[in-house]
Amino acid sequence: MSEAKLYRLTNRAFIEVTGLDAVKFLQNLTTNDLDGDNTEFTYSALLSPQGKYLFDFFILKRSRNRLIVDILATAAEKFMFRLKMYKLRSDVKIEEVKGWVGVGFSSKPVDAFIDPRCSKLGWRQYFLGTSSPREIPILNQHHFEKLRVSYCIPETEIELVSNKTFILEAGFKRLSGVSFVKGCYIGQEVTARMHHKTTLQKGLAKVKILGNIDANSNEIFFQNKVIGNLFTRSGDHAIAYLKFVNEKSLLNVGNAQVLVIERF
Q1: Burial (0-12, 13-18, 19+ Cβ within 10 Å), 44
Q2: What is the bridge-based pairing of β-strands 99-104 and 123-128?
Q3: Which of 23, 36, 125, 199 is at a distance of 20 to 30 A from 221, taking alpha carbons?
Q4: Which CATH topology does 7-195 take?
Q5: pLDDT digits over 193-239, tens only?
Q6: Residue 24 is inside which H or E element, if any?
Q7: Does an H or E element contain 193, and which?
Q8: Contact present, 149 and 206 (Cβ < 8 Å)
Q9: Domain parsing of the chain, residue ranges
Q10: Given 2.40.30.110, 3.40.640.10, 3.40.50.170, 2.40.110.10, which CATH number is that of 202-263?
């Protein structure tokens, strides 16, 4: 991976939000703060009124009147529909725009941004209004999945499940994806209550797999009860979502055992 300075992602879409109310509009909807310091590039989410995850994305603030949302391409249409549903009388225009994003792991260019989720994921550089050039190599997804597993980074439509996941259980505080000092946003009441008044009983963890697991075996058992599921795997490690038990306990998946390496 070190030979090239930039790798292109082929699975992203870009939604431009412009207008006098652009920042205010997204500020009132999404989990992260767009008005504070160091808010030029943020990781954020849109939740349901019940506080459950719907979409996650990056927001690039070009100005107070122009923001770019970088989102998984397969989620873009539904996300735009949701934004337009909330638009009402806001002075904003919402449209998908052409562009591409590259990621790198060497020295950061001045116009690139460190991935706010984890610096080990490198930096992102945006090229809006153009198509991605073929000469730029595509990011090796196996390499990126290894990074995600190493640092327990959830991914859209894998560990992050629409209308099911609670973002604090998915580690959004650690991933710099939620603000607890901004004003209200959709799902804020549930998220704030989980943060201030409860101790999480479930969440993501990095686990080590001891033995061979069939590709279709995902349920994690503890004392003959299902307590979670395996998701992304890389070698003998994986990201799991599970009920927290004694960290030294050996869990079972199929005929193999699973050991929690680190809870998040």
Answers
A1: buried
A2: antiparallel
A3: 199
A4: Gyrase A; domain 2 (3.30.1360)
A5: 999 988 899 999 999 999 998 878 899 999 999 999 999 999 999 99
A6: helix 22-27
A7: helix 188-197
A8: yes
A9: 7-195, 202-263
A10: 2.40.30.110
d(CA 248, CA 42): 36
**102 SS3 class:** strand
**Same topology between domain 7-195 and domain 202-263:** no
pLDDT, one tens digit per residue, over 148-189 is: 999 999 999 999 999 999 999 999 999 999 999 998 999 999
Cα(201)–Cα(111) distance, integer angstroms: 40
- Closest among 110, 122, 113, 111 to 70, alpha carbons compared: 113
Whether 4 and 106 have beta carbons less than 8 Å apart is answered as no
pTM of the entire predicted model: 0.94
Task: Note the Cα 218 to chain centre separation in Å.
Answer: 21
Contact 264, 203 (CB under 8 A): yes
Strand, helix or coil for residue 211: coil
Strand order in the sheet with 113-114: 7-8, 99-104, 123-128, 113-114
Question: Quick one: tokens of 93?
Answer: 């225009």
